[in-house]
UniProtKB/TrEMBL annotation:
Entries under InterPro entries matching the protein: ARM-like, ARM-type_fold, Condensin2_G2
One GO CC annotation: condensin complex
Name of protein: Condensin-2 complex subunit G2
Domain of life, per lineage: Eukaryota
Record-level GO BP terms: mitotic sister chromatid segregation
Location of the region described as Disordered in the Swiss-Prot/TrEMBL record: 524-562
Species this chain originates from: Pomacea canaliculata (Golden apple snail)
Length: 1146
């Protein structure tokens, strides 16, 4: 039968080869191979099978055509692979003839994207085929490539069979070791962290199962190669290799208990580690210290006891030296590593060594002021030591020395200290309050960040919220916390619901509510008894009885005051309010409505009784805040009077008390009433009523009528209205309710607020200072403008043209350009009168009027810039808006301030506030996508930099230093951001980006040269050149510092400077002086010398100076001054040449 099948298979395969394009022949071939393969699989599975030679020949034929089968015949390939794999596994005759191509196919199948762990297991069953292959032959190249790809396959690393296959491949042939090791090293930088220990396992298994020759190659070329790379690898940055290599080697270190591993590690580390611990490079020392501490103890078990002790003592001495290393990173790594060693080998280490190490850690390193990482390492290390129960008795008297780490300046240290205390909490032998007193914990709870607060609450939760105790005990603990530290208590109760179920939280809130209700009722009852002074009652009682009752009442009142003072009552109400705030979203869920209704019912009973017993302002505020969470019908005593209270508040009292009332009204959906009240109060101020007034006739006839502005009514409170509206826009509760339910009312109010533009314009156009134009009036107008703009942004709805804030802000910018900018310019000339005194009085009057109008205009401009900056930040705007805003900023900077006569009336702080606002807008414009994509940012920067340069050069006798420093810092950040954005923008193609960057750099260079040119004329440039841009004028220093941040910007700056020097525009001695001074500064800067070559630029400067020296053009300068300036230029130029190093890149 098999002879016939062999002939049939041979014939069909030959016919198919002759007629390659015949689909019928191809289909016949596939069907035949499938059928014969199925019959062969059934044949070899028979017990005591006899394999005829014809079957072996047929299988050999199919094996040879396996690589030639098309990709569509995967099922046939898999069936043939199953046949050959079974053939090999059953050790049948001729098995070596049917596996080479099978192994190649199975490897390719296991490397496909859709492979499974079963495919890898099949490959592992054929691993014994590898020794049969001649890897010295060139034909083994495809197999080597496939084995290398297996090293980067997730399926091979995640399955035990896959890792065993890879480690076995290392042991097959010496040539495979280098191939596989190279493949793993190439994959390591990109491998997930979870793969790295698996690579370590592969190396360890390969070393363990290899013979002597291959084992030495694995040690020398693989493991020691990784060790050497790890010692010299980088530790920081996105390409840091040490953490990757450390994870691989750490697996080998964990196998120290296995036979031969200790000796192998000592043998391989010895020529590398001891020398590396003494090198000057801090990264190498740090890497070596990490490896030494992770591999400890390095020893050879076959050595004598004396040799082992000497080796251990050598490592102890190295640890002591590393703990005193001058580099804080080395100290930190060693400190934490030493603690881990003591935790793991405490019973093996000498007592003297342990005491010495702990003394160094807890007396020196924990107080290390040079770096918080050292202190952090000590705390984390001690926490690790607590994992070992043997360390508890040793550390118990030493842990209080760490108490001040709770108050460390670095948050990471405080966080680590809290983790240590939480670890101590689970240890019965040590009490955490003996390490850090409760008072210290409460102090940190009040002021610290949320991660630390969360852990402090977790630590203190069983102490102040004992759920397993009685209700009386819970209340007592609650009151104790309130009396100990009210501020910490607020933070505790706000965060404690996250450690409780909703049921337990609501149950405790109800418990506090019931306790408060009973206490206030008892206080009210005692108060009634104490005030009963009716004569009939006193006559019926003897003096002795009265005295006893008074004494008992006094004692009772004393106890009541002691148990529930006003502070405690306030604290208990805060507990209810804060816990409600924490679980408000859960209570609003539909499934929790019954719980919420029950709690609301208890609160509605408690609130009126509390208001009867006390009128303390803070208690009343808390009651109103709680009432806001209840339906208005449940608290009629509050809900009915809220609006009247808001109407009757004064501005001073309303500033602190109105928030609770406003939020309660908004929660009750009564915000429309508040908005109407605000509109009524502001309407008279913004839209004053005009009435005719009789004016006597000059001829004595009937009086004529003219228009007069009436004063607002007495019941109007515009300042209080502004206070309420500002509070509502600040409150998240009010703002959410306004945006969700009262958009139309807000639109109506905002239209009323827009009349402030008319009010401001009228006040700015008055020739004389308005009578009502006092400071309070001006501030009120500015606040209304700010609220109008803020509401316009909040009500932004692009789909509605009338509610589009971008369109509205464009009109605001036009209005500001027309009405505000003319009022911040120079002091207008005043006309002199008949006498000197009259002219002086007119001058003073004009100055005062101008001062008032200028402050109003400048403050309004700052408000507009701030709103525009926020709009750009959140993405509101388009290209037209951004360009209009850029033009507005340019006009601000070009405005001429007059500081000669008004130095007392108006300091430079006014102008610097405007400059600061312009810079904030400019920063957001740099990041604004539409403007950046349009390519117009460089053009805008040209105008703004020129105007800014003029603005910062204006004379002033009293320049505020702090504001100037802030402006310099902000300007430097803007330029750096602008350059980085230009280079990294995905919206600009490469050529356009380079052209834009060149144009921008040329603009910045022009601003620097203009700044230095002006300084050269006015004050002269310094002769001593430093290696930093700080001595330069403010604008030049900022720009140069930003341009030196990247190599690309350095090259562009030098190229632009060289082009300017070669141009014909550099003819004036002062501008040449500015260019030479800038070049000398660049030459002195190591940053520029590291990135660029200045030789071509120096040559251009030489030609420029030579042209100036030979030129006889008239520069309208004094000849002596001209000669002195040329001497300064020549001196700086020669000084730069003399300091040029021979091997410098220049």
């Amino acid at each position: 039968m098999w002879e016939g099948l062999r002939r049939m298979s041979t014939g069909v395969l030959l016919d198919a080869e002759m007629e390659e394009n015949d689909k019928n022949k191809e289909k016949e071939k596939i069907l035949l191979i499938s059928s014969v393969a199925q019959l062969a699989i059934a044949t070899i599975h028979v017990q005591e099978v006899i394999i005829p030679q014809s079957l072996i020949d047929t299988a050999t034929i199919f094996h040879d055509i396996l690589p030639l089968l098309p990709d569509e015949a995967d099922s046939i390939k898999n069936r043939l692979a199953q046949l050959f794999e079974t053939w090999w596994r059953l050790e049948l005759e001729g098995r070596e003839r049917v596996v080479p191509n099978t192994l190649l196919y199975l490897l390719e199948r296991s490397l496909q994207a859709k492979c499974t762990a079963a495919d890898v297991k099949v490959v592992w069953r054929l691993h014994s085929v590898l020794p049969m292959i001649n890897f010295d032959d060139d034909s083994s190249g495809p197999l080597k490539n496939l084995l290398g790809r297996c090293c980067s396959s997730y399926q091979y690393l995640k399955t035990d069979e896959g890792r065993r296959f890879l480690s076995f491949a290392f042991t097959v042939h010496e040539g495979l070791v280098e191939c596989l090791h190279k493949a793993i090293k190439n994959q390591m930088p990109f491998a997930p962290k979870s793969w790295l220990p698996l690579y370590g396992e592969v190396y360890y298994r390969a070393w363990q199962r290899s013979t002597d020759t291959v084992q030495q190659i694995i040690e020398r070329d693989c493991i020691q190669d990784l060790m050497n790379h790890a010692v010299h690898a980088s530790r920081n940055g996105c390409q840091a290799m040490f953490p990757i290599l450390f994870k691989v080697l750490s697996y080998l270190h964990r196998q120290k208990k296995q036979r031969g591993v200790d000796a192998m590690l000592l043998r391989l580390y010895e020529p590398i580690l001891w020398r590396s611990l003494s090198v000057p490079n801090t990264d190498v020392r740090t890497n070596s210290a990490s490896l030494l501490l992770d591999a400890f103890p390095l020893q050879n078990p076959d050595s004598t006891a004396e040799e082992v002790d000497l080796m251990l003592q050598k490592q102890f001495d190295l640890m002591q030296r590393l703990l005193a290393d001058p580099c804080p990173v080395v100290r930190a790594v060693t400190g934490e590593g030493v603690c881990l060693l003591m935790s793991e080998y405490l019973d093996m280490l000498p007592v003297e060594v342990v005491q010495t190490l702990l003394r160094r850690l807890l007396q020196e390193l924990v107080w290390d002021a040079s770096s918080p990482s050292v202190r952090l390492a000590v705390v984390k290390g001690i926490t690790a030591m607590l994992e070992n129960p043997l360390c508890h008795f040793l550390l118990k008297p030493l842990l209080p020395r760490l108490s001040y780490c709770l108050h460390d300046n670095a948050e990471v240290v405080r966080l680590a200290m809290m983790k240590l205390l939480l670890k101590v909490k689970s240890i019965r032998a040590i009490k955490y309050w003996n390490i850090c007193p409760i008072e210290h914990l409460l102090a940190r709870l009040e002021v610290d960040s949320q991660p630390i607060v969360r852990r402090i609450v977790e630590l203190l939760f069983p102490s102040f919220m004992p759920l397993d105790q009685s209700p009386q005990e819970q209340i007592l603990r609650c009151i104790t916390l309130i009396e100990s530290n009210p501020g910490a208590a607020r933070v505790f109760w706000l965060n404690v619901p996250s450690h409780m179920t909703l049921t337990d939280t609501v149950k405790f809130m109800a418990l506090v509510c019931r306790y408060v209700l009973e206490s206030v009722r008892q206080m009210g009852h005692d108060s009634d008894d104490g005030t009963d002074t009716s004569p009939s009652g006193s006559k019926r009682k003897s003096s002795r009885d009265v005295g006893q009752q008074e004494e008992q009442a006094a004692e009772k009142n004393e106890d009541e005051d002691q148990n529930l003072s006003a502070e405690v009552l306030q604290g208990l109400l805060e507990v209810i309010y804060l816990m409600w705030t924490a679980v408000a979203k859960q209570l609003d869920a539909r499934e929790n409505m019954n719980i919420k209704q029950s709690l609301m019912k208890k609160l509605s009973v408690m609130i009126p009784d509390v208001l009867k017993i006390t009128q303390e302002p803070r208690v009343v505020s808390l009651v109103i805040e709680l009432a806001g969470h209840l339906p208005p019908k449940a608290v009629p005593s509050i809900s009915v009077t809220c609006l009247s209270k808001l109407r009757n508040l004064t501005n001073d009292s309303g500033a602190g008390e109105c928030t609770e009332l406003l939020e309660a009204m908004c929660r009750w959906e009564r915000a429309s009433e508040i908005l109407q009240m605000i509109s009524d109060w502001l309407k008279d101020f913004l839209m004053p009523t005009e009435a005719p007034q009789a004016v006597p006739s000059k001829k004595g006839g009937a009086a004529k009528k003219r228009v007069q502005i009436l004063a607002p009514e007495e019941n109007g409170h515009p300042d209080l209205a502004i206070n309420y509206l500002s509070t509502m826009l600040r409150s998240s509760v009010c703002k959410q309710m306004l945006m969700e339910h009262h958009l139309q009312d807000c639109d109506k109010l905002n239209r009323l607020l827009s009349h402030v533009l008319v009010v401001i314009k009228k006040q700015l156009q008055c020739e004389n200072c308005p009578e009502s134009a006092d400071v309070d009036n001006r501030i009120l107008v500015e606040q209304i403008l700010s609220l109008h703009l803020r509401m316009s942004v909040l009500l932004h709805r692009p789909e509605e043209h009338c509610a589009d804030c971008v369109i509205h802000m464009k009109s605001i910018l036009e209005w500001g350009k027309e009405s505000l900018l003319p009022c911040i310019g120079a002091l207008p000339a005043c006309k002199s009168g008949d006498g000197y005194l009259e002219g002086e009085n007119q001058l003073i009057s004009t100055a005062e009027n101008w001062e008032w109008r200028s402050k109003l205009a400048s403050n309004c401009i700052v408000t507009i810039l701030d709103i525009c900056c926020n709009m750009l930040m959140v993405g509101f705007g388009d290209k037209e808006f951004a360009m209009q805003l850029s033009s507005f900023c340019k006009d601000i900077l070009y405005t001429e301030f007059d500081f000669g006569m008004l130095e007392i009336l108006l300091s430079t702080a006014e102008e610097l506030r405007l400059v600061d606002g312009v810079l904030s807008v400019l920063y957001q414009m740099v990041l604004f996508e539409d403007l950046l994509a349009s390519g117009d940012v460089s053009n805008s920067m040209t105008h703004i930099m020129t105007a800014l340069n003029m603005c910062l050069r204006r004379p002033s006798n009293r320049e505020p230093r702090v504001s100037m420093l802030d402006i310099k810092s902000k300007l430097c950040g803007i330029v750096s951001c602008l350059l980085n954005t230009q280079h990294s923008s995905p919206d600009i193609c490469e050529g356009e980006c380079d052209q834009t960057a060149k144009s921008l750099t040329s603009t910045l260079l022009g601003a620097m040269l203009e700044d230095l040119h002006h300084t050269s004329i006015k004050d002269g440039l310094p002769e001593n050149i430093q290696d930093s841009p700080e001595p330069l004028p403010p604008l030049s220093a900022c720009i140069l510092k930003a341009l030196s941040s990247t190599a690309a910007s350095c090259r562009l700056l030098v190229q632009s400077l060289e082009d300017r020097m070669r141009s014909d525009t550099m003819t004036h001695p002062h501008i040449v002086h500015a260019a030479v001074h800038l070049l000398v500064t660049l030459h002195a800067s190591r940053v520029f010398l590291r990135h660029v070559k200045l030789s071509e630029c120096i040559a251009a400067a030489t030609a420029m100076v030579q042209r100036i020296r030979e030129s006889e053009a008239d520069h309208h300068m004094d000849p002596d001054l001209h000669r002195e300036l040329l001497i300064q230029i020549e001196t700086k130029f020669q000084l730069m040449k003399s300091k040029q190093p021979e091997n410098s890149t220049s």
